[in-house]
C-alpha cells in the first residue's frame, strides 16, 4: 500500500493555530461506518451518541514543557530544543533546530544562564544528546523556562509570550495525570470536567490508559510503501482496573470508545486475537493501517489528521479509506478546523 494513497489537499487556512475560545466548543463530524454517512454536530452533543454501559477510554499522559528556546553561548545564535527522552539525571536526547549549527562540544544557554547545556556524544542516531547544568530541581527549571511542545504547524516563537502561556493550559487535557508526553493526545483536548460528569451521570464510565506520546506518533512516513515504515517505541501502561472495565463492557454487549489514536494503540497492542487483555507496562511500535482487524476498539473519537500520516492511516483502517476520505472532503468543504487545535470526529 502506497503512502501517496493517503494524500489530500488541505487549505492552509484550515490548520488551527488556536484552540476554540472556550474548551469543548468544537465542531464534531459524526461518521457512521455501516452507511458511510455523516452528521454535523457540536462536541457538546457527544453524549447523544453514547449509550449507558458504553466505556470511554482516555489517555491520561501529561505533556511536559519540552521545548526550550536558547542561544549558542559563544556566538549568540538562536537554538531551539525539543526534549525527547531523559537518558540520565542531567542528560536528554533532543531534536535541535537549526541542527547543522549544533556541533559536538557546543555550549548552550537558556533563561539568561539559569540553564546551561553542552552537546555531548549521542547514543542515538537520530537525536543530539545534551548534558544540562542548573541549580535547583529539573522540574522547577523546566516549568519556568520550558514551553509546551505544540507541533510545528502551530506557529509559535519566544516573543509570543501570551500564546505560550495559553498553550500551557489548552495543550493539556483536563484529566492529564502522569507526566511524560512531548505531544498532547489531542482528541482529549475537547473534554471539559462538566462533559465528563454528564457522561458519568448517563451511565458511561471513563477508564484510563497511559501512553507517553513521543516521536513515533507524529514522525512522517518516509517510505513509499507504508508497510516499510518503522514506528518508534512509545511507553504505555494498561492497569488491571481498565482491563476489567473493558472485559465487563464487552461481556455486556456494550462498546469500547477510544478517545484518540494513542488510547487505540495501547488497547490494540495488548489484545490477543479474541480481544482479551492483560495488565502490563511495556512499549509499543504498533502501526495500524487498512487491512488491520480491530480486536478491542468499537468506536473512536479523534481529530482531523495530516495527509500521509500514520494517524490518517489508522482512522482509515477503522472506518474504511473511502469513507474517511469522503468525510475529510466534507469537513474541508464545511471549513472544519484541522489538526491538534482543530475540530473532532466521532467514528461509530
Describe the structure.
The protein has helices spanning 138-145, 161-170, 193-201, 215-218, 240-251, 261-270, 310-319, 321-333, and strands at 27-32, 37-42, 55-59, 61-63, 67-72, 78-88, 91-97, 107-110, 115-120, 128-134, 178-181, 206-211, 234-238, 256-259, 280-284, 299-303, 344-347. Helix 7 (310-319) packs across helix 8 (321-333). The model has no long low-confidence stretch (mean pLDDT 96). The chain is built from eight helices and 17 strands. The strands form three sheets. The chain has a nine-stranded mixed β-sheet. A six-stranded antiparallel barrel has the order 5-6-7-10-9-8. Strands 4-11 form a two-stranded parallel ribbon. It has two domains: 3-63 and 173-347, QueA-like, CATH 3.40.1780.10; 67-146, Thrombin, subunit H. Helices cover 22% and strands 27% of the residues.
Structure described in brief:
This protein is α/β, with parallel strands linked by helices.
SSE layout and pairings?
Blueprint: E1 27-32, E2 37-42, E3 55-59, E4 61-63, E5 67-72, E6 78-88, E7 91-97, E8 107-110, E9 115-120, E10 128-134, H1 138-145, H2 161-170, E11 178-181, H3 193-201, E12 206-211, H4 215-218, E13 234-238, H5 240-251, E14 256-259, H6 261-270, E15 280-284, E16 299-303, H7 310-319, H8 321-333, E17 344-347
Parallel strand pairs: 1-17, 3-12, 3-14, 4-11, 14-16
Antiparallel strand pairs: 1-2, 5-6, 5-8, 6-7, 7-10, 8-9, 9-10, 12-13, 13-15, 16-17
Helix pairs in contact: 7-8
